[in-house]
Request: fold
Amino acid sequence: MAQYEEITIDQGSDVSITLNVTDTNGAKKNLTNYTAYAKLKKNYNSDSDDTTSFTAAIPTPETDGVITLALTNTETDALKAGRYVYDVEISYIDSDSNTIIERILEGRAQVTPSVTK
Reply:
């Protein structure tokens, strides 16, 4: 089950979020051969035109269990102030060529309005 976290995004600012992923034993999850994805929407039923994708990366060494999420100031400036929902998923292809997807984080995001533009 994914963990739940509320985040705040300042409209018009660069955003960088670092996630430390652990396995069921609390050890750093080995993310070798994994891919990370993260999206932000106004609500769960929004269409794809209302979706903003984070840049999601797994830096080396992948064995450290770290994922970084980022949005540029241009991307956050395009967001309307208000509440959003988001989630983060990781995936890999197993030995039988099946794609295994795991949602690791989800929650609400509050985009705060910018006064200075």
Q: What stands out?
A: The radius of gyration is 15 Å.
